[in-house]
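Dear colleague,

Thank you for sharing your sequence with our group. We've completed the structure prediction you requested, and as agreed, I am returning the results in plain text so they can be pasted directly into your records. Please verify that the sequence below matches your submission; if there's any discrepancy, let me know and we will rerun it promptly.
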Amino acid sequence: MKVAREKSIIEYFYHWEKETPDNIFLKQPFGEEFVDFSWKEAGIQIRKISSYLKSLNLPPKTNIALISKNCAEWIITDLAIIQSGNVSVPLYPTLTGPQINQVLEHSGSPVAFIGKIDNWQEMKSGIPKEVNCVSFPTYNPDPSHTQWNDILEKFPVDNSTFIPNLEELHTIIYTSGTTGNPKGVMLNFKAASECIYETRNFTFLERPGTRFFSYLPLCHIAERNIVESVCIVTGGVIYFAENLETFSKNLQVANPTHFLAVPRIWTKFQQGILLKLPQKKLDLLLSIPIVSGLIKKKIKKGLGLNDAWICLTGAAPMPLSLILWFRKVGINIQEAYGMTENAGAVTMMPGNKSVDGSVGKIYPGMEVKIDPANGEILTRSKWNMMGYYKEPQMTADTIDSEGYIHTGDVGEVDAEGFLKITGRVKEMYKTSKGEYVAPAQIEMGFSGNPEIEQVCVVGQSLPQPIALMVLSDYGKTIHKETIEEKLKAVLKDLNNSLKSYEKINKIVLLKEPWTVENNKMTPTMKIKRNVIEKEFEKKYEDWFESPGTLIFE
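Please find the predicted structure tokens below.
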């Protein structure tokens, strides 16, 4: 299908609903079985949910909340909200009661669709009483809610064809927030249509036969773009992950053509491979020409990526060493860079040319310049956000008078338009010696090591930085003395490449991993640096003064 610049996402859906009604659109796993939704069947449910929303006589462009892990009903609801002329407000299903209360109050959503949620009873306490909740079927529906199946039974199919004005508000995406309260990023329909058009050659948008595997939060801009939007544009199929235990099996069945993962997922894949095939043995097998090809095919098939046209990484920095490791086993990972405020689309690594150390080439239609004052990356495009919902001052602080978004990232652009990220403006801190340290760049020097799961470099007010670490599952299988030797060797190599004031003084190995559940990671698996620092800052000086290079907590 030809991609058109002035076409909204719902219009692409109408096309496939009409032209390929019996083709499978969504595949929801339940154990060994799948519940399939054809384009026609999904369309019927979308139009019935739309009828229900219209029956509520809400004001035009009302904010409708959507809270669920990824599932078929998530996609159906998102499209039904558009079809009914309202605004989709997807929220993270991992929010606590107070967090969900803050976002629902801020967005003013009178209706919330509730689906797959692990901690519903805790979250439920934060749902304002006046919010009308609708429960998805099969995922422990709350009996006090309006039920999805009752809506499908009672309401007629809305056969109207709603074509949105591209300048109108499409969605409010609340950022996962590494600090402070989430901000509601307003994107209009034009942002999606322009972004789709300008990236069509990067993501095979005019190539049939696409398959997708949906497991990263759909309320995040990356999954919404690469999975939901690209599938709807291409007329593809979305497979969902049932749960963490079935993840690998579900991925193998899906065998996607497009696969998106954050760096931590790629690290988990690497660790899983190394547990079965240690690095020395792997290196030996890859050095034998005929065997090398067989090993690469086996690894791809084992992961479920043997048919992948494109393997992407985003949302957080990806260590170059990890990209090179996967390249050796035959998997070319293309890095992408963006943020919710610019629809997640600033750069992507071309499939036919990799500039290692960069986050890819700037997309057509995207303008990037570097602020000469502090090196900050500024972006401007037709898919800029409209602003932050109900936050005019935050909007003014982020979008300057020339229409450039101030990303908060520090970087540089080469002559060919490849962008390199070198740090975060707000994460840089001053040591007691008065020198500025960019911790993210130092962390990258550690994060390609398979023994290390997570790392956070800290040390404001200390003479030298220290590194807080959590071992990987693979690292935990290695004897303590061996781990010490390995980490000391890694530290020595890294320190040799750093400036004197950046050199790491100490490694502190922590027992408890940083997770979404203990509030030390965002739902997109970025560490919450401020939370980690607040918890451990009282120990910094004692750790710094302790003898030795490694401390086991």
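Summary note from our side: Residues 297 and 306 are 7 Å apart (CA to CA).

Kind regards,
the structure core
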